[in-house]
Specification:
The structure is a homodimer of 166-residue chains. Chain A is an alpha/beta fold. In chain A, 43% of the residues lie in helices and 16% in strands. The radius of gyration of chain A is 19 Å and the shape is globular.
């Protein structure tokens, strides 16, 4: 009985993903790329979650891959071309996406969304971030719907607060 | 003559990497991992530059790969093991690195540092970030010494400000 109570106490203080997740603004495949980038800047997010009509994440884009959506296809895979591009045009690529949507610019195939279950431990969240190289992880419920997200910054501050001496 | 002046005017307003780079705190291979992580949290950086004794970048670590330094070797490559690890220990991995140094925990071989020259255009910086999946790029001089760094956030705000109507 004492053992059970002790175990219960330990478990109560183990932080889980849903406890440190925050509500995230999201984008959809048919949103303009410019809207997605602006959202990330204004909300100071390290990435973006792209959801479908049922609010299920179809992609979790690290910030560098949101930036990638802005880069014209012809430059993405050719560093040599990027170096010789006329300087006058080099600043203007930002204005290039025009009416392109997030879906138009996504890699094909779309990589599997970086998600965890609500009861994932912080170690599981950390391992997912490190392995997927994504500073943003979506927390989804049993039906795959987005519950929130954990950012790298929030994970690190939560880890700094968590510990054996709480 | 008019043409030359016009070209000059255009060139003057093209932003280059050194103009948007900021001074970065750095770490060395023999610094403790805990110091590196704390530095990244306190300075709110999206990654860290690891330099040698001559202040030349030997690695540019995205935040997710700084986080990776904290994860014990045995969990890094085995998601199944991470899921079954005792919950009580799952929060404590943070306290694990102890006296381990950045060099002890770096991937082997160390990936080539993500750098650009001071006169790189913002398109070159953006392409480097997207291709290396690094929200931090080091700006180095001719001798390979660190001059500063460009963060993803700074690049995006600079792009939003730059444009044809400046």
């Amino acid at each position: 009985m004492t053992v059970t109570q002790t175990t219960g106490t330990y478990r109560d203080r183990i932080m889980q993903a849903h406890e440190i997740a925050v509500t995230l603004p999201t984008v959809r495949m048919d949103d303009p790329v410019s809207k997605a980038v602006q959202l990330m800047i204004v909300k100071r997010l390290p990435g973006l979650v792209v959801v479908d009509d049922a609010d299920r994440p179809v992609a979790v884009l690290p910030g560098t891959q949101v930036l990638r959506l802005l880069i014209p296809q012809s430059y993405r895979d050719d560093p040599a071309l990027v170096r010789i591009v006329d300087e006058i045009h080099a600043d203007l690529f930002w204005h290039g996406p025009g009416n392109l949507t997030v879906g138009d610019c996504m890699p094909n195939p779309v990589p599997k969304a970086a998600t965890v279950a609500p009861d994932a431990t912080l170690l599981e969240v950390a391992t997912a971030m490190a392995n997927k190289r994504s500073p943003l992880i979506a927390v989804i419920d049993d039906s795959g719907r987005l519950m929130g997200g954990v950012t790298l910054e929030r994970l690190l501050t939560s880890l700094a607060i968590a510990g054996p001496n709480d």
